[in-house]
Amino acid sequence: MELKDPTSLPALCNELLAAKQREAKANAERLAIEDRIVALAGAKPEGSKTTKVEGFKITTTGKMSRKMDWTAWSVVRDEIPEEMRPVRNKQELDEKGVKWLQANRADLYQLLPIEVKPAKTSVEIEILATSEPTT
């Protein structure tokens, strides 16, 4: 699709909103088709199932989402041997802490073995209500 005026910011805003609408419609259509395929091909509650039909190989993968009640876990944790506990501690970067060190303790910040690179810039468009000019 070619833009009407690629240098006009309002035109680009309209183009982005229209593209997002098309994307949402295509996504909804894709999800509906996937649901129909699963209804016909079948799926396991958890794990994959492969079906071959007329030149196509269809793989459906069922997934279960599990969430721990951490308050209840703290009560029963010691009843499960440590080597059998289905819990792991995940190391993750504390972004606020890194930014604080960078701003307040550059000497410590420079010791951090981290990679910093730009992420994708997000663009959000909001349609503003137009008002009648006052006379």
Structural notes for this entry:
The chain contains four helices and two strands. By secondary structure, the chain is an alpha+beta fold. The protein has a domain at 1-53. It has a two-stranded antiparallel ribbon with strand order 1-2. It is flat and about 60 Å long.
The 3D shape can be described as flat
If helices are DSSP runs of H or I spanning 4 or more residues, what is the number of helices? 4
Question: What is the residue-mean pLDDT, rounded to a whole number?
Answer: 91
Distance between the termini: 41 Å
Radius of gyration: 26 Å
H and E order: HEEHHH
Unreliable residue stretches? none
How would you name the oligomeric state of the polypeptide chains in this document?
single chain
Report the portion of residues in β strands. Answer: 5-15%
What are the SSEs and their pairings?
Layout: H1 9-41, E1 47-53, E2 56-62, H2 70-76, H3 95-104, H4 106-109
Antiparallel strand pairs: 1-2
List keywords for this structure.
two-stranded antiparallel ribbon, 2 strands, 4 helices, 135 residues, alpha+beta
Provide a brief overview of the structure:
The chain has 135 residues and is of the alpha+beta class.
